[in-house]
Amino acid sequence: MTLKPWKFISTKLLNKFRIFNVRSDIRVSPRTGHEHDLFVIECPDWCNVIAITPDQKIVMVEQYRPGSDTVELEIPGGMIDAEDSSPVAAGVRELREETGYEGRDARLLGEIFPNPAIMNNTCYTIIVEDCRCIHTVEWDTGEDLSTRLVPVADIPLLVAENKIGHSLVAVALYYFELWQRGLKPTPKPNA
Amino acid sequence: MTLKPWKFISTKLLNKFRIFNVRSDIRVSPRTGHEHDLFVIECPDWCNVIAITPDQKIVMVEQYRPGSDTVELEIPGGMIDAEDSSPVAAGVRELREETGYEGRDARLLGEIFPNPAIMNNTCYTIIVEDCRCIHTVEWDTGEDLSTRLVPVADIPLLVAENKIGHSLVAVALYYFELWQRGLKPTPKPNA
Q1: How open is the CA angle B151-B172-B191, to the nearest 5 degrees?
Q2: What residue in B sits closest to A176 (Cα-Cα)?
């Protein structure tokens, strides 16, 4: 059996909430033939960045997260803006703005849907090597960050012990681990 | 520097959308002293399930996802209902309803925030061993699933090649991989 996307009937924008919209799509289930009213959270695409220093540390950021009301250990990242020429360019920008770090050979490591059940966007993971702190940070008014350099070797245990609280950060770290093992080739920079 | 949660001022429910609500929280940034209006998507907690068969396959499900408008290869899972006595019980129920499989030694493998920036909920990953198909599936009206048995050894390459599209599924598979390597102990069943 091969499953097919559900037939689209109509869509309606319900609300705008500055960083996301909520719409309702009417689609037909191929199994039952019935129409379903499906809520979709429309978000811009996101990016996050695995930034590696010359001494094999990952540039991480601690930040307060209002959804969970907790401080989380994450990697730099954010929304891909209309001004960003690509997901890679957005990742390089977010890394610089949030931490002041810049490196070489920035390229795409992976991409995933944050939640394909109810959200329409993609999160791109960028990898940047040989990163050094050479800029002043430029935080948004709502940002309050603390940079942490975490040895690459410590990452698996941090994830295993549930010290990584953001699912998209855990996914990026998994992509990084697969890349270290040679399973995940990345395109050449500027390819 | 240690970051602290932001001081809570007030909250307001903005909209209900059946499977999630949107609220607005007013909080004060400790860095700037300014009030911020923060949107939070309130969701019930979710669960997903790593179900392993005696011949070392993982019970996966293909399903249509309306957010991305794609068919995704995932693991069983869903919302934790008020009737579920625990995340583990919810996982066992979802596994049975979606695939007909049941196993032994169901226990918690990990937990993570799907998106602590804008969502308030937790996703729990349950592991169940020695799984066999012994029930008839019980799909919700909106469900249309196809069970796939995937060899455990194939998982890393599936993730590396971006064949796993749902971030919470990739996180669960990362927890499973760490558990296989002995890094992620799970509590005893019924502990």
Answers
A1: 105
A2: B160
3-state helix, strand, coil in chain B (%, to 5): 20, 45, 40
Q: Global pTM? A: 0.95
Joined tokens for residue B177: 């991989």
CA distance A113 to chain B (A): 5
SS3 content of chain A, % helix, strand, coil (to 5): 20, 45, 40
**pLDDT per residue as tens digits for the range B71-93:** 999 999 999 999 999 999 999 99
Name the residue facing A67 among B116, B142, B156 (closest C-beta).
Answer: B116
Q: Which residue from B minimizes the CA distance to A156?
A: B178
Helices and strands in chain A, H and E counts: 3, 10
Question: What is the ipTM score, two decimals?
Answer: 0.95
Residues within 8 A of B (CB atoms), A 165-184 only = 165-168, 170-171, 173-175, 177-179, 181, 183-184
Nearest Cα to Cα of residue A189 among A142, A126, A145: A126
Q: Which residue has the tokens 């399903």?
A: B63
Domains in chain A (CATH in brackets) are 7-42 (no CATH), 46-180 (3.90.79.10)
